Amino acid sequence: GSSWNKCDFETNLCKVLPEFNLQPGWIRRNGQSGVGPPYSDHNGNESAYFLSLSSEMQSSSAALRTKVFLPTDEHLCQIRFHYWVSQMSGTFMVGLQKHSEDTVTNIWKVSGELRNQWNVNTITINSTEKYEV
């Protein structure tokens, strides 16, 4: 059996991202907030919330870190996410940090080839120790 943790940002952050731990640069907003595209979430809902990089952060980077996940000995962990890359030079990366390691290993990245539209991706993680994404 699979157990999905759905993360939709409607009331706040979700179980996967530590509560109230929005790193500088990230804002929780919807398409009606008046700060530019996207004007809806991936379902076309203008009032649904998503996380967005604030416009002041366009030239620098900002990270989001998940909670600590337990080892995936029995099940693989799959993380499915919708994303929007608007700027030409923007790169969106997913990194994996195992608890015995000091460094974050990049396991997926995209640069703006599919700009100004919602895309979806699923990454699969296999780790024998606790980790964060």
From TrEMBL:
* UniProt cross-references to SUPFAM superfamilies, sorted A to Z: Concanavalin A-like lectins/glucanases
- The domain of life is Eukaryota
InterPro entries per UniProt = ConA-like_dom_sf (IPR013320), MAM_dom (IPR000998), MAM_domain-containing (IPR051560)
- Give the coiled coil ranges: none
Report the Pfam families cross-referenced here. Answer: MAM
- Domain MAM, by residue range, is 5-133
GO cellular-component terms in the record?
membrane
Q: Which PANTHER family match?
A: APICAL ENDOSOMAL GLYCOPROTEIN PRECURSOR (PTHR23282), MAM DOMAIN-CONTAINING PROTEIN (PTHR23282:SF101)
Protein name as it appears in the record: MALR1 protein
Species annotation: Hippolais icterina (icterine warbler)
